[in-house]
Amino acid sequence: MSKQINVALIGNPNTGKTSVFNALTGLNQKVGNYPGITVEKKEGICKLPRGVKAHIIDLPGTYSLNASSLDENVVIELLLNKNDKDYPDLAVVVSDVENLKRNLLLFTQIKDLKIPTILVINMSDRMAYKGISLDIDYLEQELKTKIALISTRKNKGINELKELITHYKELSTEPCLDASSIDESYFENLRKAFPNQLLYKLWLVITQDVNFGKTDRKTYDAVEDFKTKSKTDLKRLQQKETIKRYQFINETLKKGQTIDLNSAKDLRIKLDRILTHKVWGYLIFGAILLTIFQAIYDWSSIPMDFIDSSFASLSEWTKNTLPEGAFTNLLAEGIISGLGGIVIFIPQIAFLFLFISILEESGYMSRVVFLMDRIMRRFGLSGKSVVPLISGTACAIPAIMATRNIESWKERLITILVTPFTTCSARLPVYLIIIALVIPEGRILGLSYQALTLMLLYLIGFGAAVGSAWILNKILKIKSKSFFVVEMPNYKLPLFKNVALTVLEKTKAFVFGAGKIILAISIVLWFLASYGPGDNFNNADTIVTEQYASENLTEDELHQKIESHKLEHSFIGIAGHAIEPAIRPLGYDWKIGIAIVSSFAAREVFVGTLATIYSVGSDEEETIKNRMAGEVNPILGGPLFNFASGISLLLFYAFAMQCMSTLAVVKKETNSWKWPMYQLVIMSGFAYIVALVAYQVLK
Amino acid sequence: MNTIIQNILVFSALGLALLFLVRKYIWSPKKKSTKACGGDDGCGCH
User: Fold this and answer.
1) Which of A162, A292, A416, A672 is the most exposed place for a label (fewest CB within 10 A)?
2) Contact partners, residue A681, CB within 8 Å, separation at least 6
3) What residues form the membrane-spanning segments (chain A) (predicted)?
4) So what's the architecture of A5-180+239-262 in CATH?
């Protein structure tokens, strides 16, 4: 049986590595038309001709082998460590036909490591449109490699690439640049000191700013002693190396590539002029956001109402059909009601991700990143922080992981700390249900008040993130420099398959990720709401019947009084009353208090918790929204969810740090419990104060 | 009989739910990473 080939997919950000990975492996990794999608390596298997198999590793995008961030470090660690089980037999360098010159810098560096290398030129479908023509034979000869001209969008050239991978042993490992030409005497000394080592590999180890983790350190520790040159001298030599490489690339492309500039002047330039304009750019972005939020409301109301009433009917049907007993009640009041509290939001979540995915795929998101960089710099962040902040609208966890491509530790730490302020999809259910209860349905200039409120909450989240970044920038005394280079990809018509996959993946992650937690918490809450200690709970029937003996209550009214009495004296009722003094000044009752406490596991648990608590003991078929609308403030009378308490709740959820998984990721990324604990205490404390002030002012 | 079965099912569901929550948030047995890619925790980020 033949050995499996280890293939590393390497390339500059946004060259379509992940699309090539998906085309080779048949997997469905997320693809985006903006840089920084891959921050960790991903793996898959590719079936090649003649029964050969390749183990494909999709590595984070990097511009060169001079690592300046953690994700780039992943690439270099792998290429320098022959002992790594994933060390590639073959490197496939993916480049973009429109940025070949820049992409070839990385290619020549990898080639000089004497790893068999194939050059993939992707996006070939745009060549004619851009007036680009390539002399592949000449390029192959000069670059001493095989070239695969492919288009993942049009699914062209993939089989040819597979053929080349199969015959990787025939590839030349001759380098593009003689490393010793960088500084002959220095490299001569290096050669004498390490006669059996590859010079260019040694050179990379000497010039890297990062630590090499598990790389075979023993081999390289000796090199430390060889850092005879000062840091400045080494940097100067690194620059000399880059210049030499570009001289070689320019010379090669002079004959190998022709660009007809007349046909290259396309719509992109005109569009960029408007979309990144310092006034129009922001206005257009604002208008796009407004359209998205309005559409989310307009398009999802019908499916949401349908799901809500379906769950109410299912709960009723379960109660009427299954044998009477505790488990039937658990199913009807706990599990079905709790899950209904999450499934109801699928339409809105799906529409939100549909729009985000279209913006990413079309290439517009990179223009947003560019626009935001102007604002971000004033607050101590860079444009690179925008990618995590925008990703944070889906979930803070991958967003925090996406900070790995920020070189400056200070900027990275600030971005990690402020990202949880951005409105993640878990906040959406809470916002939607509270907005529906407390904000009137009217419209202004065709935009509904409810959609405007939702957009305002997103802006508040973003504003809180940027504001706190500014404060942290002043407080944190960490010195570091950074630079920001953003890839401006071409505008593309979003591919239906990619958009559909993203929407499906994100919605699935929302439902199943949160669904398991909600299911478990619903079961526990139902139990705590259906059982209780002492006579007050166990003899509720007798106590309530005696209490209301003089009043002529109907059987239904008496039953409701008994159930209400039981809930008040259940385990959850006792716990809720214990925390009530702390939350009453915010306009909440003990049931909301329980929902807030349980949503520290995950925010979206809030609606499910209330749905479960309100369902316990209720015999009526009722939707979640109607149950919440019918709740009465036990002290003041009137609806519990009124304008003042609703706004207070919205603001509490906008600022509070209520996600244990995010705290765990922050701990992992900062390697300390100090930062997540600061986040928990400061964000939640701030949320409490803002919610308190809002309620006291508005009541 | 029906009551006993229903109570068994309720307490089983409760036990499973508590086990899931404890393993998710409080204590989970450490898995040995098979995908080490550098650094001290196998994720290449330290």
Assistant:
1) A672
2) none
3) 279-297, 335-359, 379-401, 413-439, 451-472, 509-529, 635-656, 676-698
4) 3-Layer(aba) Sandwich (3.40)
* B contact test, residue of A208, A214, A319, A528 with most B CBs within 10 A: A214
Task: Please check whether residue A569 is in contact with residue A534, taking contact to mean a CB–CB distance below 8 angstroms.
Answer: yes
Strand partners for A5: A54
Residue of A nearest to B3 (CA): A325
Q: Which residues contact A589 (CB under 8 A, 6 or more apart)?
A: A576, A580, A583, A631, A633, A634, A640
- Closest residue of B to A526, CA-based? B14
Q: A213, B5: Cβ pair inside 8 Å? A: no
> Number of folded domains in chain B?
1
How far apart are the C-alpha atoms of A646 and A604, rounded to whole Å? Answer: 16
Angle at A122 between CA A116 and CA A125, to 5 degrees: 150
Locus of tokens 């109907």: A554
CB contact under 8 Å between A524 and B14, yes or no, is: yes
pLDDT in tens, B13-41: 999 999 998 888 777 666 544 443 333 33
DSSP-based three-state secondary structure for A632: strand
Q: Is A446 annotated as a binding residue?
A: no
Strand arrangement, sheet containing A117-122:
A42-47, A53-58, A5-11, A90-96, A117-122, A146-149
Q: Which residue has the tokens 């398009």?
A: A299
Of A416, A424, A461, nearest in space to A674 by CA: A416
- DSSP lists the bridge partners of residue A156 as A151
E strand spans, A48-112: 53-58, 90-96
Burial of A456 (0-12, 13-18, 19+ CB in 10 A): middle
Interatomic CA distance for residues A532 and A538, integer angstroms: 7
Query: Partners of A678 in the beta sheet?
Result: none
Residue intervals in chain A for CATH 3.40.50.300? 5-180+239-262
Question: Could you tell me which of A602, A570, A609 has the C-alpha nearest to residue A588?
Answer: A609
Contact residues, chain B, for A327 at CB < 8 Å: 5-7, 9-10, 13
Residue A26 has pLDDT above 60, yes or no: yes
The token pair at A488 is: 């401006």
Domain membership of residue B36 (yes or no) is no
Q: Minimal Cα–Cα distance from B17 to chain A, Å?
A: 4
What pLDDT shows up at residue A617? 61
User: How far, CA to CA in Å, does A519 sit from each of A306, A339, B13, B26?
Assistant: 21, 6, 10, 18
* Both structure tokens of A172: 């030349």
With vertex at residue A520, the alpha carbon angle to CA A519 and CA A526, rounded to the nearest 5 degrees, is: 85
| Digit-coded pLDDT (tens) for A480-510 | 655 566 667 778 888 888 888 888 888 887 7
Q: Is the ipTM of this complex over 0.90?
A: no
Helices (H) then strands (E): counts for chain B = 1, 0
pLDDT at A494: 85
**Of residues A383, A362, A387, A405, the one with CA closest to residue A63:** A405
Predicted local confidence at residue A292, as pLDDT: 84
Domain that holds residue B4: 1-26
Q: How far is CA A315 from the centre of its chain?
A: 34
